[in-house]
Amino acid sequence: INFWPANDHAKRSFGWDGSGVGVAVIDSGVEDHIDLRGKSNGKSRVVYSASFVASRQTNDPFGHGTHVAGILAGNGAAAGFPSATRRFWGIAPAAQIVNLRVLDETGSGTDSAVILAIDRAIALKSKYNIRVINLSLGRPVFESYLKDPLCQAVERAWKAGIVVVAAAGNEGRNNSAGNEGYGTIAAPGNDPYVITVGAMKTMTTPSRADDLIASYSSKGPTAIDHIAKPDLVAPGNRLISLLAGRNSSLWAGYPGNVVPLSYYLGASTEASSPSYFKLSGTSMAAPMVSGAVALLLQKDPSLTPDQVKARLMQTASKAFPSYSLAADPVTGQTFRSQYDLFTVGAGYLDIAAALHNGDRAAGSTMSPQARYNGADGTVSLVFATGAVWGTGAVWGTGAVWGTQVLSGTGAVWGTGAVWGTQMTAGFGAVWGTGAVWGTSSSGSSQGGLSSLTSIGMPEAIAIAIRGEN
How far apart are CA 308 and CA 165, in angstroms? Predict the structure, then answer.
């Protein structure tokens, strides 16, 4: 994808392109796009499709799933002209896609459809070598992950040997509860097993040095269970990927997001591309990580989901500013983001570092629980028994999350260290006993019938689609 050379570096330096690895894209469907065909034979790399929505069609009338698939596995064929000035590659451009449609033409779906799709991916694991599930979707957390059927489904996949990557959500600006966007991670990204991904913005330069967090990226800890999330962050703002077609809902609603031909063909024309579209959100960041997982598993198929998660988190870049400001391009409103563990997790995805790394974690990589001590205003991490990054384990907490967001063994921060005085008001909303995260939260996922959308609530969808400066 533009301005993200890690995939090209992976292929040129290592020879890895995701060949032979199956990735289940559980989303709004995947169109037959030239960038998802084999480079030599032109055969579709979408090797299996099934629908779990009423229409039973497996194409993508919404336009979200095709964009996700392109970030993950596009090969740039539609921009493969001699005159092209740019080409848009996915992270694993030879990976195979298993298309499991669960969202309708509006981007909405149900828990039950997603659960059925996850179970289908598990059943097809051996036939299509499905090693990764990408979930660029989510809905609010209504109950503990221990009871949520959606979380139980992703855990089944994880324990079956499939890495599950989930979008964190796009509610990072949501201050309706006075919590500065903290505690807004979407389900099933709230599950401690899965890899939960937040969104960075590349600032339209090739260098990573100036990249910043997207202010809409949801922040941890998770509601109810207070799991430390996201696990890491990846590029997700204004990414160019595949256009599902000019009949898709996203194309109709946001024609300004269609990439002009002049952007990559160098021609002085205002004509719009029939092949590429620009979207933003943690939905776009998740397939960056799924593509990286495909590369790691192509290199070493024996890696377990826990070993993959540990390697990505350990090698993630931990160089961040203390805070940054972002402006909404429509409203002009400015948002301040702190670079703490609940915003950036273990750090910024570094594919080259992960491919260079040979460490094999022995143990669980369940994301830890955060506990707030109201008496002294500190937050500490509590690790599951046998977790690889607990005290005295393989790396210790500092190597995974970095000293920037940790102060002392196990302590994340005190009230004045990272949050600053303006953030302490959020403690009550996130860790308190009030209605925001308590048992009185509205809605229920009983029976697996909760509303579920591709990239969050309606306002969050609009924010993510337009991106930010």
Answer: 11
- Structural domain total, the chain: 1
> Is 421 within the bounds of a domain?
no
Q: Is residue 34 part of a domain?
A: yes
Cα-based distances in Å from 166 to 135, 387, 402: 5, 20, 23
Residue 45 resides in a domain = yes
CATH at residue 228: 3.40.50.200
Q: Name residues whose C-beta falls within 8 Å of residue 122's C-beta, 6 or more positions apart in sequence.
A: 156, 157, 160, 162
Closest CA to 309 of 361, 369, 272, 374: 361
pTM for this predicted structure:
0.89
Tens of pLDDT, residues 49-108: 999 999 899 999 999 999 999 999 999 999 988 888 889 999 999 999 999 999 999 999
CA distance 197 to 180: 19
Residue 255 lies in a domain: yes
pLDDT digits (tens, 9 = 90+) for 278-288: 999 999 999 99
Q: What amino acid positions are annotated as catalytic residues? A: 27, 64, 283
